[in-house]
Amino acid sequence: MSPIKLVGFDLDDCLFDSTGLSERARVKGIDAMIELGLNLDRQKAIILLQEIVNEYGSNSSKHYDYFIRRLNRIENFSISFNQQYKYIAAAVMAYHQEKINSIKLYEDVKPSLKKIKEMGIKSAIISDGIPIKQYEKILRLQIDELVDLIVITDEVGIRKPNPKLFEYFLEKFGVKGNETIYVGDNIEKDIIPAKMNGIHTIYIHRGGKYDFSLSDLNLTDKEIPNYEIDKLYELFDIVSKINNQNFS
User: Fold this and answer.
1) Residue 207 has what DSSP assignment?
2) CA atoms within 13 Å, Cβ hemisphere of 113
């Protein structure tokens, strides 16, 4: 068997705190509306917005629209048509400004990516999402030069958890699953489809929305990650362990 030749990573909540950043940015939007004159208790507004996020999903672009509609139609507010769009515009501006100002890598990411490169191992990012949004994150995080390949699912027309995405990933590098490690924070979308391709899987605990204790999940042997880590630095002991097993 060959040594590890390739390490792949998910992006959101793996290389940077996507969940925390989004939550902080949404609250900035609430604050902007209140500063503009919206007469609503801040904590009540935060709870209402989180309820909307839970219902429509974190990737919806209409959270603040639904927020204003709900205030008018359910909470009996009387926000005028023009004022509605002023509030929404202020919230969206504040939301994006916070995302621009506060996006940053976890402290273990750059040193780990540099070490991988020094070891002669290839690296890649495989991320679900709209390409322009995901590339914006990657460019702001300044990691595009530290990896050998970036795969955004909507570029290739295959989304996680389709295992064909990981098959494509292996084919791009001409490597086998047992020569590859994939690090992700989502059991369903990262771990299971990677394992289906024979890839060594690492479940990283970053405290994001998909971070669970494995003991709380009813997983089969085919679904359980090969390894768990809290910091990327732990990756290198795993690489050594796999390589030693291969040559023992």
Assistant:
1) S
2) 22
Q: 190 with 227, same domain?
A: yes
Tens place of pLDDT per residue across the chain (248 aa): 569 999 999 999 999 999 999 999 999 999 999 999 999 999 999 999 999 999 999 888 899 999 999 999 999 999 999 999 999 999 999 999 999 999 999 999 999 999 999 999 999 999 998 899 899 999 999 999 999 999 999 999 999 999 999 999 999 999 999 999 999 999 999 999 999 999 999 999 999 999 999 988 889 988 999 999 999 999 999 999 999 986 55
Of 102, 119, 138, which closes a domain? Answer: 102
Amino acid (1-letter code) at residue 52: I
Report whether 34 contacts 45 (CB < 8 A).
yes
What's the domain range around 212?
6-16+105-247
State whether 30 and 43 are in the same domain. Answer: yes
Q: Are 199 and 182 in contact (CB under 8 A)?
A: yes
SS3 142: coil
Residues 136 and 74 in one domain: no
Q: How many domains does the chain have?
A: 2
Nearest to 81 by CA among 59, 101, 65: 65
- Tell me 188's DSSP state: I
Q: Which of 52, 80, 102 is the last residue of a domain?
A: 102
183 — phi, psi (to 5°)? -110, 125
